[in-house]
Amino acid sequence: MREGYEGTGPGAITPDGCAVELYARLPVGDEPDVIAAAVPAGAHTLELGSGVGRVTHALLERGFTVTAVDESADMLARVRGARPICGPIETLDLGETFDVVMLASFLVHAGDEEVRRGLLRTCARHVAEGGCVLIQREGSDYHTNVPRERVDPSGFTVRITSVEPAGEGVHSVHAEYVFPDAVWTQTFLSRPLTKEQFESALAEAGLRVDRYLTPDGTWVRAVPVG
């Protein structure tokens, strides 16, 4: 387990505190619709941090081809129909490029700035000429509207119970997922980024915002500079 990260609950827990069984249960949201509206149909896609394939499988159903990357072999074992690659994202170099590179799950908010730089360099390294990078950001009130909870229509409750300073601009976030038959928790480190800080981090990696895809600015389409 990485320092500052923890997870509890049934089944395997990844180094960043994610429970494999939990993510296998979570329904896919509107992510596939947002992605499909922003890129060409059937795009050749590199999904960084695919997890168990929640979004992967929805994209495959829409005719995309997907290379799914995750550091957890337990997560990747749940992925079907995509080309799986197990390893750290921040050092990935496949020697090929893709129409679309995806960095979802708020990974751009990695607590370690060097990890974030590596993630964005990986995005820039793998995006084809004329292609794009799709990034999911935290909402503006992610770290301030706490505690909060959401009851999913499928019958479970997700809570962000606390956000505490962890030093050097990083917060320790504690989340709970309560199902009728099981409870999982996750504690992880997250670095809030203003719009300006986010765009500066992109520029450092040779990327720029093409457009914000959702009204809340949580989904972004970025392209290589120049």
Give a structural overview.
By secondary structure, this protein is an alpha/beta fold. 22% of the residues lie in helices and 35% in strands. The chain has six helices and twelve strands. It has a seven-stranded mixed β-sheet with strand order 4-3-2-5-6-12-11, with helices on both faces. A five-stranded antiparallel β-sheet has the order 1-10-9-8-7, with no helix packed on it. The longest helix has 14 residues. The radius of gyration is 17 Å and the shape is globular. The termini are far apart.
Could you tell me the mean pLDDT? Answer: 97
Number of strands: 12
Strand proportion: 35-45%
| SS-derived structural category | alpha/beta
Helix content: 10-25%
Strand order of the largest sheet: 4-3-2-5-6-12-11
Order of helices and strands: EHHEHEHEEHEEEEEHEE
- Give me the oligomer status: single chain
